[in-house]
Every structure is written in C-alpha cells, then in structure tokens.
Amino acid sequence: MHHFQHRGDDLYCEDVSVARIADAVGTPVYIYSHATLTRHFQALDDAFSSVPHLICFALKANANLAVLQLFAGLGGGLDVVSGGELYRGLAAGVPPERIVYAGVGKTREEIAYALRSGILMFNVESDQELRRISEIAAASGCTARIALRVNPDVDPKTHPYIATGLKQSKFGIEIGRALEEYEAAKTLPALDVVGIHQHIGSQITMIQPFVDSLTRTVGLVRQLRAQGTDIRYIDIGGGLGITYRDETPPLPLEFARALIDVIRDLGATVILEPGRVLVGNAGILATRVLYTKQSPVKNFVVVDAGMNDLARPSLYGSYHAIWRVHRVSGRDEVTADVVGPICESGDFLAKDRTLPRFEPGELMAVMSAGAYGHTMSSNYNARPRAPEVMVRGNQFYVVRERETYADLIRGERTLDGC
Ligand SMILES: *Cc1c(COP(=O)(O)O)cnc(C)c1O
Hints:
It is a single chain. By secondary structure, the chain is of the alpha/beta class. The chain has 2 domains: 4-31 and 280-408, Beta Barrel (Lyase, Ornithine Decarboxylase, Chain A, domain 1); 34-276, TIM Barrel (Alpha-Beta Barrel), CATH 3.20.20. It is built from 12 helices and 21 strands. Strands 4, 14, 15, 16, 17, 18, 19, 20 and 21 form a 9-stranded mixed beta sheet that branches. An 8-stranded parallel β-barrel has the order 5-6-7-8-9-11-12-13, surrounded by 5 helices. Strands 1-2-3 form a 3-stranded antiparallel beta sheet. The chain is globular and about 70 Å long.
C-alpha cells in the first residue's frame, strides 16, 4: 500500500504531481509520502498493540531527519549502528531512551557517546565488545544497559548479502555460547543485563524463519530467567520484506500474530527494528530521460540517476518497478535497459524491461526506493547527491537539498593549503 497513484495520466504522490516536484526541484529527486510512512508505522504498531512493545526504526534504511521526526512523533524509537546514526537520531529529536545500538564494530568513541547520550541499550555482538563496554562504563562511572545479539543460525531465504543470522555470518554471538556469555556479563562491572537481541536478515518474505529463530531465542530466555537473569526486552530485529515486484510478504497482522504466540507469556517488552517495511514503498526516485540509444543487440534508456543515487540494482541485482510519470497512449512497447551516467557497466536501474517507449526529456519513477536508496547513495563520479522531498497532502517540502559542486570538495585541501 502506498500513496503514489496515477490520476488521469499523471503520477501523484498524495495530492502533489510528481512532475510539479521535478520541475521545481530538478531530477534526480527522492520523494517520500508522509501518509504512507504514517500508515506503515501505525499498521505495525497496531498489530503489536496486545503486548508491550517499542518500534525502533532501523535508520540505515532512510536517515532523513524529517522521516525520523515523523516516526518519533508516532511513539517510535531507533535502531542505530554507528555514532553518526545516533547523532542523526538525536538531532531529529528522538528520545535517547528509545534508541538501541547494534553493530559488530563499535569504537571506544562511539560507545562513550552512546553512554553519555543515555540510550536504551547496546546490542552487543562479541565477548570483546562486552568487555570494552563494561570498561568504558566503569571508567565513566555509569552503567550500560546491554542485550546480547544471539545468532540463531536460521536461514532467512533471502539474498546472501543481507542474511545475517546464519552461523557463518559475522553478526551476533552463536546461540550455543550465549548462556556462557550472559554469565560472563553478570560478573563484569557497570553492566545491567536487560535484554536479548536477534536480527536474521532483510527482505524476508516468509513468516517461518522469524518464528524459528524467535523460538530458539525464547528457549534461551527461559533458561536465562531460570538462572536469575532478568530479560526485560526481547529485541526481535527487523527484516520484514516488501513487495518490489510480485513478492507476497506477510501482512503486519499475520506477522505479529505468529510472533506474539511465541513470546506472549514471557511478559517482556518486545522491541522491533523494522527498516525497509516502513519506508521502502513510501518513496520513489524520480529521474529524467536524457537520451535513448540502440546497440545492435540492446536498447538503452539513459537517465539522469545512476548507481550512485540508487545502488540496489547494481549491488544486489534488485528489481525496482519503473513507471511513467506521464502516461501516453499509443506508444509502442520497447525492451530496454535503464542505465545511468556512471562510467561502469554495472550502472543500471533496470535490465531488459519492457516499457512503453520513453523519449528524451520524459520523467520516470523508480518505485519502492524509500529504503536503502538515499542512505546508500554516494558521490561516485563526483555527482552531487540527490535532494529528498516529503509530500504531505497537497504540500511538498524539500527535506534535504541537492548537494552543490562546492559540497563535493568541502573539507579537502591541496598540499599548498595544508
Ligand atoms: C538492517 C538492520 C535492521 C533493519 O532491517 P530491514 O530489513 O530494513 O527491516 C534491523 N536491525 C538491525 C540490527 C539491522 O542491521
């Protein structure tokens, strides 16, 4: 469900035409729907309303301050994976007591920053990290709330780059060793052991991997409680998939029902870390056709957005639907690759896609680009990063400006200038 629909022949985001935004702000441009973001958050929130819970949005999916502020206003928190993400979250006004912090490579500086900020808990990924957090907390005279991230060794049946809960993965602590680590945590100074964490992967479209992994984690929680460790927070991670093409991921209600069945009697607070499912279909990337060209074996549509703007197709071979912003009748259909201006053959947004013929100057919408779109963008080929626009009703707001050429060299010096 989202709020990008054609009215007559023109694509609208809520009550604003995409062409109007493209004309005002230029292309490429990311466009987000306030109504879709709100609806996605509330659907998940409602689905878990029968248990105490906190939705900690994984901001690596979409880190725009306006998005973070919107979710915080709806009662949400954040899942951060770096000091920079924590900084963004705090800058957006997200209360620190609703922020959890995961990641295998937290530095001393990042740990100290999170402690000073008073976050809800660290999701700890190794025994060395556990000791480091204890040491830093003890030295600064405070207590660190921690959960251990356990690796339940479950196959989420997704792209191997985004599977994170298999035993060969770098994430978390092997579930068979977790009891031991919890015992160790209890003996270390300045730690308050409050939770358990898992996150098995991303773009998961079946319920079963979630149920299997949570069942294992819950088994561990029962053992821990029997040994006197009070696990108050069960952080079930993120990973719920969305429809990019024809996937049929579980609805929030089905997802919630299946998981609540596994955890209800524990009486713990459930933390969810959804990323993609909240923002993916709430955003598009609007781009303009520059040229069309034919090689002897292929047709190409060259657009002004590239892999630096949206990396997913190049990185994972991901499918994004391509829509015409203005529909025209009577155009013949052409099978073409939609490619960007970057000097790499891997620079494509769509491959062998059959679409009504595009002409130079026409606008294209790359759908489902709200998650891992702008956050993964780069300045490769010295391309300024695209602006971000939020639409609410019949108004649109530029919530991040397009970068300028001057931004590209900010902070750089030649040796003469050092
Ligand atoms: C990436 C990530 C998420 C969010 O994943 P989605 O698939 O976008 O829901 C949640 N938790 C952790 C620890 C992550 O690394």
